[in-house]
């Protein structure tokens, strides 16, 4: 999806700040799952990937704060997030769609807890984190797709 975007600000907003921030939420959950399963090697791999994603998201947040003072960049970011939200809505499972193992995909709860600690480390403000938690969303795209529907 990020390859379809034609500006740095748009790519940072979608790929790093949105997609990779959502991955931070997932990776924290996966690390805890593997730790509980006593697979400490896989948990360590998840932890290493999580540390890398925190850096990517922090980098994007720093640049996006700079771009926030440039009207053209702000418009590019808004258009990119709108585009990405449309892609995410189009990819959401529809009632009746089933997986290969016959699971009703629309009935599966895909919610992932917001990783507040690492989002803070990555440069999200307390207000941004609180908004995500309040909405019960780990992904900025998911919350945007519901507000635009």
Report what the structure shows:
The protein is an all-alpha fold and 149 residues long. It has one domain (7-148). Helix content is 69%, strand content 0%. It contains 6 helices and no strands. The protein has helices at 8-36, 40-67, 71-91, 116-121, 126-135, 140-148. Helix 1 (8-36) packs antiparallel against helix 2. It is globular and about 45 Å long.
SS-based structural class?
Answer: mainly alpha
How many beta-strand runs? 0
Number of separate domains? 1
Gap between N and C termini: 20 Å
Low-confidence stretches: 140-149
Shape: globular
Q: What number is the mean pLDDT?
A: 89
Radius of gyration: 16 Å
| Structure annotation, total helices | 6
Q: What's the main sheet like?
A: none
Could you give the topology of this structure?
Blueprint: H1 8-36, H2 40-67, H3 71-91, H4 116-121, H5 126-135, H6 140-148
Helix pairs in contact: 1-2, 1-3, 3-6
Briefly characterize the structure.
This protein is mainly alpha-helical and about 150 residues long. The protein has helices spanning about 10-35, 40-65, 70-90, 115-120, 125-135, 140-149.
Features:
149 residues; mainly alpha; disordered C terminus
